[in-house]
Amino acid sequence: MGRPRQKVDERLRVAGIEEFGGAVGALEVPNPRTLREREVLIAVKTAGVGNWDDIVRAGDWDVGRTPPMALGVEAAGVVAAVGAEVEDWSVGDEVLTHPVPLVDQGTWAPWLIAEAALLAPKPADVSWERAGAFPVPALTAIQVLDESLRLTPGEQLLVNGAGSVTGGLIVAFASLRGIHVLATAGAASRERVIRAGAGTVIDHHDPDWAAQVLEATAGRGVDAAANAARGGTASALAAVRDGGRLATITSDPPDAERGVRIASVYVRPDAAQLEVASQALAGGRLEFELGASFPLSQADAALARAVAGRGGAVVLDAVSD
């Protein structure tokens, strides 16, 4: 079925940019077009905000759209219409998604068109706020652990920048997999990182924190490291054993040395991974803290909060209400 009937001259008010590098603000874009066969229309309830949205704003991440455009690459909402060949989803289903490449507008909008194959069911006991801010950091964490580092139970993992939203989820998912986690974090997030599953937490403000990791591993170094802190890859590499692995989600991978395998991780959509992750969230097995919620009209403030990294996930709330 197609999208709900709307006035021909009606336009959609979204939060986004008029040009790459421009300020975030309110703008009007055309209403969602008619759905293609394998697309769905989602009434957006919440949309996540992360530092990755600032990368899109700057024009440094190609998400399939050019300005003027709504920003946002993750959301949770209710299916409002489905394309003619969509069989797995029905009107009224509650879903979450990382819908990249975008096929119409970004998620900071009341309505979102997405490929049906990129949706995952929203568990009933997960709040809209947590669901909307979950897809990108959760998928990143899983892809770091399962695809780049390929950790096995009993191995030791260092997570540098564990106080961040994504870093905290790397800790949590690794702990669920039976990995012994050492982490770096600031004092404000120390207890949260411990609750997420870290066995050892080192203050990342200490310039010699890599030496503390070596001391904690009897000089051997960890089997693998996940770097979630800008400018932290060199220290993380120093804490990895010879022949180990390092994955970074930042844009500054170090040169390889001592046989350490290095990977840069760029998140990609995966509905199956997202469903598994959201089930873990529903089961109360993940530490996932919300930091702040903003209305769509304050998307600029929400992005500033996310870029500043003041702790916890940031979400735009009640987007389609």
* SS-derived structural category: alpha/beta
- Using the coordinates above, name the CATH class of the largest domain: Alpha Beta
CATH superfamily of the largest domain: Medium-chain alcohol dehydrogenases, catalytic domain
Contiguous low-pLDDT stretches (5 residues minimum) are: 1-9
Find the count of extended strands (DSSP E, 2+ residues).
16
Mind summarizing the main beta sheet?
Answer: 7 strands, mixed
Instruction: Write the CATH architecture name of the largest domain.
Output: Alpha-Beta Complex
Number of helices: 9
What's this, in brief?
With 321 residues, the protein is α/β, with parallel strands linked by helices. The protein has two domains: 11-134 and 288-317, Quinone Oxidoreductase, Chain A, domain 1 (Alpha-Beta Complex); 137-264, Rossmann fold (3-Layer(aba) Sandwich). The chain has helices spanning 51-58, 128-132, 135-149, 165-176, 190-196, 209-216, 233-238, 271-282, 299-308, and strands at 11-17, 25-30, 39-49, 69-70, 75-82, 94-97, 111-115, 119-121, 156-160, 180-185, 200-203, 222-227, 240-248, 261-264, 290-294, 313-317.
What's the helix and strand layout?
Elements: E1 11-17, E2 25-30, E3 39-49, H1 51-58, E4 69-70, E5 75-82, E6 94-97, E7 111-115, E8 119-121, H2 128-132, H3 135-149, E9 156-160, H4 165-176, E10 180-185, H5 190-196, E11 200-203, H6 209-216, E12 222-227, H7 233-238, E13 240-248, E14 261-264, H8 271-282, E15 290-294, H9 299-308, E16 313-317
Parallel strand pairs: 9-10, 9-12, 10-11, 12-13, 13-14, 15-16
Antiparallel strand pairs: 1-2, 1-4, 3-5, 3-7, 3-16, 5-6, 6-8
